[in-house]
Specification:
Elements: E1 17-25, H1 30-37, H2 40-48, E2 57-63, H3 64-70, E3 85-86, E4 90-91, E5 98-104, H4 107-120, E6 125-134, H5 155-161, E7 173-182, H6 184-188, H7 192-199, H8 219-223, E8 225-226, E9 232-233, E10 236-237, E11 240-244, E12 249-258, H9 261-272, E13 287-289, E14 293-297, H10 300-304, H11 328-337
The protein binds protoporphyrin IX containing FE.
Length: 343
Amino acid sequence: MTVQRIPQAVIGPVTPAAIFLTLVVEPGREQAARDALAEVSGLVRAVGMRSLDDGLTCVTGIGAAFWDRAFTAPRPEHLHPFQPLDGPRRAPATPGDLLFHIRAGRMDMCFELAQRLGELLRGTARIIDEVHGFRYWDARNMLGFVDGTENPTGPARAEVALTGDDSDHPASSYVIVQRYTHDLDGWRALTVEQQEAAIGRTKLSDIEIPDGQKAPNSHVSLNVIEDADGTEHEILRDNMPFGSVADGTFGTYFIGYAADVTTTERMLRNMFLGDPAGTTDRILDFSTAQTGALFFVPSQDELDDPDLLDQVPASAVGQTGVAAGETAADVAWKRAAAPAGPA
Ligand code: HEM
């Protein structure tokens, strides 16, 4: 029997404001952090209700190291530590037990929720990265280009970003985040034509440069993932610019959701190691990845009742002695207690 699950607000629309919080859970506070997960949606409702038109949402992600400390069930199929890349360009792996991706029409709502989450987790988890992202002009990033144009639309958003009924955790997702800083002086020293060649789209009108004319090291060339039969593999992005004039920091917070995180990982390999090897992404000559982390985004039902995450994944049901709804601990106990079968 398939369990019907409701997803978190993964496929929500791009909003004018977002806050990204990455946290590490203090040693010994695993149960407290697990309990706190169940409180998140109540906080989102309480803050969101104060201005319904501003569409406050929050997506919560769980990192591999925290999963191993807090849950007894096996990790979800694609949850593993972020794979760092060290080639012509460097994509570091940085810590992250929990991720909150807060979105709304107004920054004050994002800020209020971030503050409430901070209170909820005080003494339990430390915020190690906090980025306030804003919509910049007509959805442009700090490099001056429109960002997000080729995202999937309509029903394709869910198909790309959410796992299906055949998954060990239906209606869930996987998200990779990276905080990038840009060398804006270097970028601005390029001509507009050189910048357009680096991205693979025109700057003002945001039109894709035709295939035959697109540079092989352009960002778009390296991120269009097609099988030999022409099937395209996509992800759902919600990048946000951020910055500090005083510090001279100008960046892009990359966030990519996928049902199949191997697609995002392939894009990263193309960008950082090159495809073919050595043909790395031209935007990386002006962009440095400062962080990198991968999180599992459980369904809303699982987030609201984290004990569900300790149930044996649907894919294991049917294996000897495993029934639907059992916890991993139940199964381990039953197996240990069962008389040994024939060798
Ligand atoms: C497209 C910027 C990082 C995947 C684009 C576009 C821009 C852009 C301007 C073209 C407009 C659009 O379709 O959205 C950036 C910047 C980044 C960044 C400034 C960080 C410095 C990444 C990363 C990935 C990625 C890390 C994947 C792991 C994609 C994909 C497309 C895209 C899949 C659409 C390609 C297509 O189908 O045309 N990005 N991006 N981007 N980017 Fe990025």
